[in-house]
Amino acid sequence: MKIIRTTSAMADWSRRLHREGVTIGFVPTMGALHEGHRALIRAARLACDAVVVSIFVNPTQFGPTEDLSKYPRQLRLDQALCRKEGVDVVFAPTTETMYPAASQTVVTVPAMARRWEGEARPHHFQGVATIVTKLLSLVQPDNTWFGQKDYQQVALVQQLVKDLNLPGDVVVHPTMREADGLALSSRNVYLSRPQRQAAPVLYRALQAGAAAIRAGERRGTHIQRHMTRVVAAEPLATIEYLSVCNPNTLEPLSALHRQAVLLGALRIGPVRLLDNVLISFRRRPSRQM
Amino acid sequence: MKIIRTTSAMADWSRRLHREGVTIGFVPTMGALHEGHRALIRAARLACDAVVVSIFVNPTQFGPTEDLSKYPRQLRLDQALCRKEGVDVVFAPTTETMYPAASQTVVTVPAMARRWEGEARPHHFQGVATIVTKLLSLVQPDNTWFGQKDYQQVALVQQLVKDLNLPGDVVVHPTMREADGLALSSRNVYLSRPQRQAAPVLYRALQAGAAAIRAGERRGTHIQRHMTRVVAAEPLATIEYLSVCNPNTLEPLSALHRQAVLLGALRIGPVRLLDNVLISFRRRPSRQM
Description:
Two copies of one chain form a homodimer.
Chain A: E1 2-4, H1 7-19, E2 24-29, H2 35-47, E3 50-55, H3 75-84, E4 89-91, H4 95-98, E5 106-108, H5 110-114, H6 117-120, H7 124-139, E6 143-147, H8 151-163, E7 169-173, H9 193-198, H10 201-214, H11 220-232, E8 237-245, E9 259-268, E10 271-280
Parallel strand pairs in A: 1-4, 2-3, 2-6, 3-4, 6-7
Antiparallel strand pairs in A: 8-9, 9-10
Helix pairs in contact in A: 7-8, 10-11
């Protein structure tokens, strides 16, 4: 396994492999790899000849009061996991390499970034869009894997890749969960034991919303109420949002047709927990032709 | 010569050629090709195995009151010129292909876009940065040629390519001029005969600034005054700006050291004329060690 530290070495490696007809699968990460990342790497490993994992805690997607400095960093452990999974290249650039002093260019996907996480974290998605553009341009992947857990991020990246004609298809991998339903996240390590015990309430709330839809409910506000009620019973959790949205535009839905994504964010202690459930369904029998 | 109309066909062509080890030279244009473009194409032809010329009048770099609808379009003539010059691919996409209805992503290079043309044309460089990102991502060139005439555009594109790690080196080709010094531009066709006769005043003004520097003048405001005086003598011309700048950042210089770019924009009738002169020089003898 090769560790690449500079942008020019990364670009050269990709160019050389493409010249040899090799396909490249890419898994961009901020490190602190867990089973969710492992699943992405394995999917990439199955689909492509060579796999690149980037490990870069991107400062431009953190707000000034956020956890950039204490975000978990464990490059040795991450490299060991990558080696074990047969990764070909770990791309672990320094911040100075990725953002030299004079760098100023930013990429924005305005409509996709406006709501939900964008309200809580004003410059977050500009940072995400900019770093993803840079990474895709350097790695030149045939396919790039993202976890479904950060649904808005994935939807925004899909729009970004289409809009800027960036290389590679975006592949979305289902969210990996603990046995009690909590979505895996590098930030779960911040939870105390009681907070950790409370955390699955988010997934339970989303499941309650999904159950209401399966039972025939099609009104957005009513589905939202089902979800809210579940979280209200958990004193350690504060709702940031629980919404019923169009899966492509992320605009809230008042009435559901065919597809919806239930998006949720809770604050539990020091952590913002994110999760989502994507649902496809037929119209209600009464409304079918 | 191949005419490519869709983004996917363009990306496929480039991928295939890279796989064959072929180098790609790229000349992005808005069509209405003239001797300036021809010089870029010939430079690309000499340096690379294959040459792609894009012809696309990019709507997002025109302001609402600008000349988008009447910008000269002559695809047949342009194709004939490209064929004659041994171009391999003319990439001439439709607006709908480049900007589908839902597209929303924008690329900005804020510091480079703020001054000069950016003041007169507020969203112009955002449009330029976005289309150049798309084109470079599709064409995947080894080198991309730009004319020096649009100096701020070239400097901004160089920053953009570095910041987003976009493929290919940016190569700047000297400005092509008419015998009387007027820089070639597709918009020169808008000039009436008296306006055309007045137009070389811009280059004369820049030359006067350069002459002052060669004579030892190092104060920005004084050099500016030399240039202004030349234009003031021409009743058909209105100064938009005449400035003495750092060639990399485009910030105005009060005192010159080693390098400067003289940037000029005049309005003559319906046309904004742009031109520039780049100067390298030693410090004044008295200031040398």
